[in-house]
Write a structure and sequence with these properties.
By secondary structure, the chain is α/β, with parallel strands linked by helices. The protein is built from twelve helices and six strands. The chain folds into two domains: 155 residues, 3-Layer(aba) Sandwich (Dna Topoisomerase Vi A Subunit, Chain: A, domain 2), CATH 3.40.1360; 70 residues, no CATH class.
Protein backbone atom coordinates (compact mmCIF):
# COMPACT_ATOMS: atom_id res chain seq x y z
CA UNK A 1 0.00 0.00 0.00
CA UNK A 2 1.27 3.44 -0.94
CA UNK A 3 0.06 6.44 1.07
CA UNK A 4 0.15 9.64 -1.00
CA UNK A 5 -0.33 13.14 0.38
CA UNK A 6 -1.99 14.57 -2.72
CA UNK A 7 -5.38 13.40 -4.00
CA UNK A 8 -4.65 14.53 -7.55
CA UNK A 9 -1.48 12.45 -7.66
CA UNK A 10 -3.44 9.38 -6.58
CA UNK A 11 -5.82 9.83 -9.50
CA UNK A 12 -2.94 10.15 -11.96
CA UNK A 13 -1.10 7.09 -10.68
CA UNK A 14 -4.12 4.85 -10.04
CA UNK A 15 -4.09 3.19 -13.52
CA UNK A 16 -0.45 2.16 -13.03
CA UNK A 17 -1.08 0.92 -9.48
CA UNK A 18 -4.02 -1.22 -10.63
CA UNK A 19 -1.76 -3.11 -13.02
CA UNK A 20 0.55 -4.15 -10.18
CA UNK A 21 -2.06 -4.70 -7.48
CA UNK A 22 -0.84 -1.83 -5.33
CA UNK A 23 -3.38 0.01 -3.18
CA UNK A 24 -3.16 3.81 -3.10
CA UNK A 25 -4.35 5.71 -0.03
CA UNK A 26 -4.87 9.46 -0.13
CA UNK A 27 -4.60 11.21 3.24
CA UNK A 28 -5.63 14.69 2.04
CA UNK A 29 -2.81 16.09 4.14
CA UNK A 30 -2.18 14.71 7.60
CA UNK A 31 -3.21 11.15 8.25
CA UNK A 32 -6.80 10.95 9.41
CA UNK A 33 -7.78 8.52 12.15
CA UNK A 34 -9.31 6.25 9.52
CA UNK A 35 -6.13 6.23 7.43
CA UNK A 36 -3.97 5.58 10.49
CA UNK A 37 -6.19 2.67 11.55
CA UNK A 38 -6.13 1.23 8.03
CA UNK A 39 -2.33 1.49 7.94
CA UNK A 40 -2.04 -0.28 11.29
CA UNK A 41 -4.32 -3.11 10.18
CA UNK A 42 -2.50 -3.46 6.87
CA UNK A 43 0.82 -3.65 8.71
CA UNK A 44 -0.53 -6.31 11.10
CA UNK A 45 -1.60 -8.40 8.11
CA UNK A 46 1.82 -8.28 6.50
CA UNK A 47 1.09 -5.56 3.95
CA UNK A 48 4.09 -3.61 2.67
CA UNK A 49 3.42 0.09 3.37
CA UNK A 50 5.19 3.16 2.01
CA UNK A 51 4.43 6.87 1.89
CA UNK A 52 5.03 9.63 -0.67
CA UNK A 53 4.84 13.23 0.55
CA UNK A 54 5.93 16.71 -0.47
CA UNK A 55 9.45 17.78 0.43
CA UNK A 56 8.34 20.40 2.93
CA UNK A 57 7.76 20.70 6.67
CA UNK A 58 4.22 19.35 6.45
CA UNK A 59 5.19 16.40 4.25
CA UNK A 60 8.10 15.42 6.47
CA UNK A 61 5.95 15.76 9.59
CA UNK A 62 3.34 13.43 8.07
CA UNK A 63 6.05 10.84 7.44
CA UNK A 64 7.56 11.35 10.89
CA UNK A 65 4.18 10.67 12.48
CA UNK A 66 4.38 7.09 11.16
CA UNK A 67 8.14 6.31 11.43
CA UNK A 68 7.61 2.59 10.79
CA UNK A 69 6.29 3.38 7.29
CA UNK A 70 8.91 3.64 4.54
CA UNK A 71 9.10 7.12 2.95
CA UNK A 72 10.07 7.00 -0.73
CA UNK A 73 10.24 10.76 -1.36
CA UNK A 74 10.09 13.53 -2.33
CA UNK A 75 13.73 14.27 -1.32
CA UNK A 76 17.14 15.08 -2.77
CA UNK A 77 17.51 11.49 -3.99
CA UNK A 78 14.33 11.94 -6.00
CA UNK A 79 15.88 14.93 -7.76
CA UNK A 80 19.03 12.93 -8.52
CA UNK A 81 16.95 10.10 -10.00
CA UNK A 82 15.27 12.47 -12.46
CA UNK A 83 18.38 14.60 -13.06
CA UNK A 84 16.67 17.68 -11.70
CA UNK A 85 18.25 20.51 -9.77
CA UNK A 86 16.39 22.03 -6.81
CA UNK A 87 16.14 25.37 -8.63
CA UNK A 88 13.99 23.73 -11.33
CA UNK A 89 11.24 22.59 -8.99
CA UNK A 90 11.56 24.38 -5.64
CA UNK A 91 9.59 27.34 -4.38
CA UNK A 92 10.00 29.61 -1.39
CA UNK A 93 7.43 29.39 1.37
CA UNK A 94 6.93 29.99 5.05
CA UNK A 95 6.09 26.76 6.89
CA UNK A 96 3.81 26.64 9.88
CA UNK A 97 5.91 26.71 13.01
CA UNK A 98 3.96 23.87 14.57
CA UNK A 99 5.04 21.78 11.57
CA UNK A 100 8.67 22.91 11.50
CA UNK A 101 9.51 22.80 15.21
CA UNK A 102 8.92 19.04 15.65
CA UNK A 103 11.33 18.44 12.76
CA UNK A 104 14.05 20.52 14.40
CA UNK A 105 14.16 18.14 17.36
CA UNK A 106 13.61 14.96 15.35
CA UNK A 107 16.35 12.36 15.36
CA UNK A 108 15.09 10.99 12.04
CA UNK A 109 16.13 13.98 9.92
CA UNK A 110 19.50 15.50 9.20
CA UNK A 111 20.24 19.19 9.68
CA UNK A 112 20.52 19.89 5.94
CA UNK A 113 16.99 18.63 5.29
CA UNK A 114 15.43 20.60 8.13
CA UNK A 115 17.27 23.75 7.08
CA UNK A 116 16.06 23.35 3.50
CA UNK A 117 12.37 22.97 4.33
CA UNK A 118 12.50 25.92 6.73
CA UNK A 119 12.12 28.27 3.75
CA UNK A 120 11.85 26.16 0.60
CA UNK A 121 9.76 23.25 -0.57
CA UNK A 122 9.37 20.85 -3.49
CA UNK A 123 5.89 19.48 -4.11
CA UNK A 124 5.07 16.17 -5.76
CA UNK A 125 3.13 18.08 -8.41
CA UNK A 126 6.24 20.09 -9.36
CA UNK A 127 8.25 16.92 -9.93
CA UNK A 128 5.47 15.40 -12.02
CA UNK A 129 5.14 18.58 -14.09
CA UNK A 130 8.88 18.71 -14.76
CA UNK A 131 9.15 15.03 -15.67
CA UNK A 132 5.91 15.28 -17.70
CA UNK A 133 5.56 11.51 -17.89
CA UNK A 134 3.53 9.67 -15.28
CA UNK A 135 4.96 6.33 -16.37
CA UNK A 136 8.44 7.55 -15.40
CA UNK A 137 7.15 8.71 -12.03
CA UNK A 138 5.61 5.29 -11.49
CA UNK A 139 8.84 3.56 -12.54
CA UNK A 140 10.66 5.58 -9.87
CA UNK A 141 8.08 4.56 -7.24
CA UNK A 142 8.33 0.88 -8.22
CA UNK A 143 12.12 0.97 -8.00
CA UNK A 144 11.94 2.32 -4.45
CA UNK A 145 9.27 -0.19 -3.43
CA UNK A 146 11.16 -3.12 -4.94
CA UNK A 147 14.35 -2.08 -3.14
CA UNK A 148 12.63 -1.86 0.24
CA UNK A 149 10.23 -4.76 -0.26
CA UNK A 150 11.85 -7.36 -2.55
CA UNK A 151 9.00 -9.83 -2.00
CA UNK A 152 5.23 -9.46 -1.64
CA UNK A 153 2.14 -11.62 -1.10
CA UNK A 154 0.14 -11.43 -4.33
CA UNK A 155 -2.64 -13.62 -2.96
CA UNK A 156 -4.27 -10.34 -1.89
CA UNK A 157 -4.56 -9.20 -5.50
CA UNK A 158 -4.63 -12.33 -7.67
CA UNK A 159 -7.74 -14.49 -7.49
CA UNK A 160 -7.31 -18.24 -7.92
CA UNK A 161 -10.86 -19.56 -8.40
CA UNK A 162 -11.93 -22.83 -6.86
CA UNK A 163 -13.80 -23.70 -10.06
CA UNK A 164 -14.01 -22.52 -13.65
CA UNK A 165 -16.86 -23.57 -15.90
CA UNK A 166 -15.84 -25.70 -18.89
CA UNK A 167 -16.44 -24.00 -22.24
CA UNK A 168 -19.01 -26.56 -23.34
CA UNK A 169 -21.11 -25.83 -20.24
CA UNK A 170 -20.89 -22.10 -20.90
CA UNK A 171 -22.26 -22.70 -24.41
CA UNK A 172 -25.02 -24.94 -23.03
CA UNK A 173 -25.97 -22.37 -20.37
CA UNK A 174 -26.17 -19.65 -22.97
CA UNK A 175 -28.39 -21.77 -25.21
CA UNK A 176 -30.71 -22.56 -22.28
CA UNK A 177 -30.74 -18.92 -21.21
CA UNK A 178 -31.80 -17.72 -24.67
CA UNK A 179 -34.56 -20.36 -24.99
CA UNK A 180 -35.88 -19.68 -21.47
CA UNK A 181 -35.80 -15.93 -21.96
CA UNK A 182 -38.00 -16.33 -25.03
CA UNK A 183 -40.38 -18.66 -23.20
CA UNK A 184 -40.75 -16.27 -20.24
CA UNK A 185 -41.06 -13.06 -22.24
CA UNK A 186 -44.86 -12.98 -22.31
CA UNK A 187 -45.24 -13.82 -18.61
CA UNK A 188 -42.58 -11.29 -17.54
CA UNK A 189 -44.28 -8.51 -19.52
CA UNK A 190 -47.57 -9.46 -17.90
CA UNK A 191 -46.02 -9.25 -14.43
CA UNK A 192 -44.34 -5.92 -15.15
CA UNK A 193 -47.66 -4.47 -16.28
CA UNK A 194 -49.35 -5.85 -13.16
CA UNK A 195 -46.76 -4.35 -10.77
CA UNK A 196 -46.53 -1.00 -12.57
CA UNK A 197 -49.85 0.24 -11.20
CA UNK A 198 -50.29 -1.53 -7.86
CA UNK A 199 -52.92 -0.43 -5.39
CA UNK A 200 -51.77 -0.65 -1.79
CA UNK A 201 -48.55 -2.35 -0.69
CA UNK A 202 -47.15 -5.77 -1.48
CA UNK A 203 -45.12 -8.22 0.58
CA UNK A 204 -41.88 -7.87 -1.41
CA UNK A 205 -40.13 -10.76 0.29
CA UNK A 206 -42.97 -13.14 -0.52
CA UNK A 207 -43.07 -12.10 -4.19
CA UNK A 208 -39.31 -12.31 -4.59
CA UNK A 209 -39.49 -15.88 -3.37
CA UNK A 210 -42.58 -16.98 -5.28
CA UNK A 211 -41.86 -15.44 -8.71
CA UNK A 212 -38.76 -17.58 -9.51
CA UNK A 213 -40.74 -20.72 -8.53
CA UNK A 214 -43.59 -19.67 -10.80
CA UNK A 215 -41.28 -18.93 -13.73
CA UNK A 216 -39.42 -22.21 -13.30
CA UNK A 217 -42.70 -24.15 -13.57
CA UNK A 218 -43.49 -22.33 -16.81
CA UNK A 219 -40.09 -23.23 -18.27
CA UNK A 220 -40.17 -26.88 -17.22
CA UNK A 221 -43.64 -27.40 -18.64
CA UNK A 222 -42.92 -25.77 -22.01
CA UNK A 223 -42.68 -28.25 -24.91
CA UNK A 224 -40.05 -26.13 -26.70
CA UNK A 225 -37.42 -27.00 -24.09
CA UNK A 226 -38.68 -30.16 -22.43
CA UNK A 227 -36.53 -32.50 -24.49
CA UNK A 228 -33.37 -30.50 -23.83
CA UNK A 229 -34.05 -30.40 -20.11
CA UNK A 230 -34.69 -34.12 -20.14
CA UNK A 231 -31.29 -34.75 -21.77
CA UNK A 232 -29.57 -32.54 -19.20
CA UNK A 233 -31.38 -34.27 -16.35
CA UNK A 234 -30.30 -37.68 -17.60
CA UNK A 235 -26.66 -36.55 -17.46
CA UNK A 236 -26.97 -35.27 -13.90
CA UNK A 237 -28.36 -38.60 -12.71
CA UNK A 238 -25.36 -40.59 -13.95
Amino acid sequence: MLIIEKEGVVKQLAPFADEKGIALLNTRGFLTEYASTLSEQANKNGCNIAILTDFDASGLLIANSIPDVYRIGIDFNTLDYFNLSPSQVEEKYKPKQNHLKPLQVSSLLNEETVEYVSNRRIEIDSIMASVNDNSKIWKFILSKLEYKFPTRDYNRAINIPEYVMPSCLEVLNEQVRKKCTLILKKERNKMKHQFSNTTGFLDIKRYNMSIPIRLRKIIESDNRIKSLLSDIESLTLK
